[in-house]
Amino acid sequence: MRKLVVGNWKMHGGLDANAALLGALYAAGRQACPFAVCVPFPYLQQAQALLGSSSVAWGAQDLSEHASGAYTGEVSGAMLKDFACRYVIVGHSERRALFGDTDERVAAKVGAAISVKLQPILCVGETLGEREAGVTEAVVERQLAAVFARCGAEALAACVIAYEPVWAIGTGKTASPEQAQAVHAFIRARLSAWCGEDVAAAMTILYGGSVKPQNAAELFAQADIDGGLIGGASLVAGDFLAIVAAAAS
Ligand code: PEP
Fold first, then answer.
1. Which of 50, 62, 72, 132 is the 20 to 30 Å CA partner of 100?
2. How many angstroms separate the CA atoms of 225 and 187, rounded?
3. What is the pTM (predicted TM-score) of this model?
């Protein structure tokens, strides 16, 4: 089984609200589809404490490309490992657009994650302008190629890939299942060329962008969509678990 659902809490949460949400995920127990939550850095210890004895995994939303040093405000991969993170989101479109994460820096962050055995969730995706200009595939290929060029095929193959059209993130606009599937198939074909067909076939390619309980099943039914990276809906336990259930069916 290669399906996976990951919540991205973004900069939301607080100790009390998190305890309720994590408690509900814990209480849901093992689901047919594995799932995880990527929480803000200060709450990693809380996630570890409340989920540690469950099958739910957790992770962070970013990491430094550096291993240690005079980088005020940064958090290293080794620090994330101290809190038993399994995953780290890398190259989310909000970090690319707002915090200067270039393709090269994203590739360096993937390398930093792999070097401490964190599994990167590598986000790629086009803006609305790029889609309208007909360059969706070129953009996604460029974003993936930067990681392949810097880190190599083995590191790329160790990533979970998340296709997140920027125009669908937090906007309520979802790519249609057909639109998403077309890009996922393209991504798998590129991964196949770089990493080999069998490896690419086994890789997990998530879709992200306004996934909700109402649209999850149709998206996840597509041949190359292996689950979801869920923003807003991951903050509501019932919605998130319904999406997990949709991935399992
Ligand atoms: C995301 O932030 O990765 C995301 C997909 O957000 P949303 O589900 O809210 O569109």
1. 132
2. 11
3. 0.97
